[in-house]
Amino acid sequence: MAWVQDFPLRSSPIPHDPKAADFPATLQRVLRKLNFQPALRSHLNGDYPSLPITSIDELRQNWDFSQATVALIASIAGKHEGWPQVIGVGFTQLMKAVRDTGAACPVDQDLMMECQVGVLEWFNDAWSGLPLLM
């Protein structure tokens, strides 16, 4: 899936907020899990020394994401303990995003929701019980 939106630079940087849980915080968390920082450093030391960013933390500090028109729902493999970590990934993060929009469904009606999900899983015969087709 591709989604494109332009985010303007801030007039001045804001401080790093380690407790933030909004769009740029989710984007930063996903980029950290993807081990993006070494790749960024490699680009800065190689063919792209003038990139406007040198660290993942600069995303929140230097760009204004307040007009983001989507919620980034991260599916991050691993063990997530404690409500702040659990609410930040997967279906619980989707639940929070829907709640944050203020969406409500009358009690006497069924909720109809449309979303796009992209998940890459590592399946094996023991887990699925089915032969793998590649």
Largest sheet: none
As a whole number of angstroms, the C-alpha radius of gyration is 19 Å
Which structural category fits the helices and strands?
mainly alpha
Q: Specify the overall morphology.
A: elongated
- Portion of residues within helices: 25-40%
Q: Give the overall average pLDDT.
A: 79
Number of domains: 1
How much of the sequence is in beta strands?
under 5%
Tally of DSSP β-strands: 0
Report the total helices. 6
Quote the distance from N terminus to C terminus.
22 Å
pLDDT < 50 stretches: 127-134
Pattern of helices and strands: HHHHHH
What characteristics describe this protein?
134 residues, mainly alpha, 6 helices, 0% strand, disordered C terminus
Written account of the structure:
The protein is mostly helical. It has one domain. Helix content is 34%, strand content 0%. The chain has 6 helices and no strands. The C terminus is likely disordered.
SSE order and pairing:
Layout: H1 23-33, H2 36-45, H3 58-62, H4 83-86, H5 90-100, H6 125-128
In a nutshell, what does this entry contain?
The chain contains six helices and no strands. It has 134 residues and is mostly helical.
